[in-house]
Amino acid sequence: MKAELIAVGTEMLLGQITNTNGAFLARQLSDLGIDSLNQQVVGDNQARLDAAIALAESRADLIFVLGGLGPTPDDLSKQTLAAHLGRALTEDAPAMAKLQAYAAQQHHPMTANNRLQAMYPAGAKVLPNAVGLAVGALLTVGSKTYVLLPGPPREFEPMVLDALVPALLAQLGRGQVMVSRVLRFFGIGESQLVDELKDLIEAQTNPTLATYIKPYEVTLRLTAKAATPAEANALLDPLEANVQQRLGAYFYGYGDDNSLAKAVVAALASRRLQVTAAESLTAGSFQAALAAVPGVSEWFKGGFVTYANATKASFLGLDLGKVNAAGAVSEYTASQMAQGARAKAGADVAISFTGVAGPGPNEGVAAGTVWIGLATREGVSASLYHFPGNRQAVRGRAVKAGLFALLRLLQGRSAHTTFNA
After folding, report:
1. Is 129 helix (H, G, I), strand (E, B) or coil?
2. CB–CB of 62/141 below 8 Å?
3. Domain with CATH 3.90.950.20 in the chain
4. Location of each CATH 3.40.980.10 domain in the chain
5. 157-189: buried (b, 16+ CB within 10 Å) or exposed (e) per residue?
6. I want to staple 341 with a disulfide (CB 3.0 to 4.6 A). Which of 120, 137, 184, 278 is the partner?
């Protein structure tokens, strides 16, 4: 079969974002033995999108429209395809119920444009959106098959893997299922991870391995095709065991929707421990990451943001003279911040952050230098990191390094690992 991909979005034509969805989908189609011969990028314009669909029909069997399924006026993909095919839009009841529940939670009325996210061309198979609100669709008309997919990668990728690929396998009549496992790693960059798995990647047939970059971390998707889920998992088990033997020190969990913050909260809950934090460099970003996880309030009652040395001393009960003497960015200050925060909050464990985010050095300390402290009832320690990147990157990497260190501590492992991402 021949496929053509049409990415929709004026922002791609302006160079504001890159069409990463096209590359992702092309890889999945290649794994299925489907040739992706052409790709188009069109702006948010109904006439030009209609022309792009007509062009694709002249040379492809499978036509994918990527993006433009949202509620804003420039989201026109499903309306354009429905009109092109002479189909009405119809409503998917589960998606509408999800939209209504979301609106009720937000205390906002359901508007007509929001309802469009639950609509699809009549006669199509609905592709559910596990992450977002706009459904996708797969529709065969004569010899052509049309697919609508959302634009945001965090919605697009799970829909492709969990809904589209199984639907295409069924349509191709291969009698196969596809099972994937997503392994998440922190503290190792993609290039090093690929190097560690080079022999497995070069020899892959079924199952396969694919790496994906996330903010300051890497995910690895293992995928197997077989007649049944049990047979697919039997193919994945030895491959994962091999990967874990090589990279287990950096592994922290499974799943597309997992995160270091979620893993930390789950570990706190399993051990029924309270955590607090004292942040200088990260200015509350660590606490914000924890607070984004549902149910965290039982294990995190609050923390401290202490930029100036005098604030560190006042808020955390530290000796200002000793902090000044040691320096704000030091092992002593990081340790004392963690110990002081734990004592003040009455928590079981505390974490602290102090460092230089940049853009230049501060008090003779190079940008990217970060100390992260950890305190428990048994004692206190601090670890030194040197993070690359600009100010935002240093702060982002520090937050994730702190989450990973805390997770390893809660799991009874060494809290510090060399940071290679």
Report:
1. coil
2. no
3. 260-410
4. 2-174
5. bbbbbbbbbebbbeeeeeebbbbbbbbbbbbbb
6. 278
Q: Could you tell me whether strands 35-42 and 2-8 are parallel, antiparallel, or unpaired per DSSP bridges? A: parallel
Nearest CA to 323 out of 309, 305, 306, 308 is that of 309
- Is the predicted pLDDT of residue 415 greater than 70, yes or no? no
Which one-letter amino acid corresponds to residue 302? G
How many residues belong to the chain? 421
Model pLDDT for residues 31-41, shown as the tens digit of each residue: 787 889 999 99
> CATH fold of 2-174, please?
Molybdenum Cofactor Biosythetic Enzyme; Chain A (3.40.980)
| CA torsion angle 22 28 32 35 (round to 10) | 20
CATH of 260-410, one of 3.30.470.20, 3.30.230.10, 3.90.950.20, 3.30.70.260: 3.90.950.20
Omega cis (within 30) before 359: yes
CATH number listed for the domain at residues 179-254: 3.30.70.2860
pLDDT computed for residue 410 by the predictor: 96
pLDDT, tens only, 45-77: 999 999 999 999 999 999 999 999 999 989 999
- Max distance between CA atoms of the chain, in angstroms, equals 80
Q: Which residue has the tokens 């190097």?
A: 195
Place of tokens 């948010």: 44
For residue 372, the tally of other CB atoms under 10 A from its CB is 29
pLDDT of residue 175: 67
27 closest CA partner among 280, 212, 265 = 212
Residues of the chain with CATH 3.30.70.2860: 179-254
Residue type, 69: L
Angle of CA points 111, 117, 121, to nearest 5°: 125
